[in-house]
């Protein structure tokens, strides 16, 4: 998943008065169907470590999340992804659930240590065979497979050699991308290089709340650059290995930021976070440059000499679309953040404000306007680039009632509002091609273990029984009619 731990729980938020003028546009009358364009991609999404299980099968070796989850105190209740939702063995059942929903697309990630256990050398065919079967099952069900090459499960052996702060990891990733493309490229037409490199860099190496759990501003900044380099290098390899019709993408969890007050100090706080959260990826990938203010803000941490000649030409290899993961916005102001912080170069200058209003079980504010703000920003800054909402959803405290039903009206309301925001963005000229609901299944929710449920399908982890929630039936109806019914 994406935005889990993307900011401290107590600091993510937005005040009601921060809503944009656009958000005040009149809502269509009840019963109106907000129809999406023909060919709109209705999807759902998962990630390998969160659902697959089979941690030691088919030659798979530990990833950084296997190691991290076994480190006392790092994951709630000591949970691990050893079994997760047992998707490795129940994949055909899960594809049948998707077919019943009517989704057109399924975004999954490939487990790097299942395919290339040491992060070097040839692929393990048994590992690739699972993804071959998955892709065949999807195509047989009429569902387009969307493959993500990296969703945070770095082979532990590469971390032992230095991990993402080391340049060699980017080269290893490009090699791995070629192996997967060679196995699946004849049947998978949409490819995402990385999922949320911000989380991998700044939560994994900055404040240490994600694997591998290191706490160093310098390591986080080096990792961010090497993620960009890995994306660009993999993009070049994919272009070489895939048919010319293949779509190559990148998924970012861009932060929707608002100043607490309309003061120079709070606006500068937004600028600082925007640099280290958003433009640290957008500028190298789409403009072949480092943000000058980011370099200045982090001068006390690094001189950026790890960026070598030619790197920014690699990072800016052209791509066909951009994926956006969104859960909630953040309000920032001048101040200081707790240490260790994921905000390298900004922690002494920026504070976050708790939100008012409804919140999810993650204690994140429910605010669909932030998604609209991100989409319209990208329309203006990257004109002509197709966008996909590759993750959006909410965790609530779901349970099966005595009749075996799972009622989740809060999730339905959340999804309804956010799809409304996507529709409004499309009406305002944003080229949004698809929406991938997070998530298909309840799963291993990273540092929260199994305590948070994002799925539209309930999983009883003891029995592995799957039960579609009310939100699953609601989403199926949305897909069937091609839009959201206002007030229903």
Automatic annotation (TrEMBL):
Low complexity: bias regions: 11-25
Catalytic reactions on record: Hydrolysis of terminal, non-reducing beta-D-glucosyl residues with release of beta-D-glucose
Annotated coiled-coil segments of the chain: none
Chain positions covered by the region annotation Disordered: 1-30, 53-78
Keyword presence, Hydrolase: yes
GO MF annotation list: beta-glucosidase activity
Keywords per UniProt: Carbohydrate metabolism, Cellulose degradation, Glycosidase, Hydrolase, Polysaccharide degradation
Superkingdom of the source species: Bacteria
Assigned EC number: 3.2.1.21
Residues annotated as catalytic: 391 (nucleophile)
InterPro entries assigned: GH, GH_1_N_CS, Glyco_hydro_1, Glyco_hydro_1_AS, Glyco_hydro_1_beta-glucosidase
Protein family membership: Belongs to the glycosyl hydrolase 1 family.
Name of the protein described by the UniProt record: Beta-glucosidase
Organism: Streptomyces bacillaris
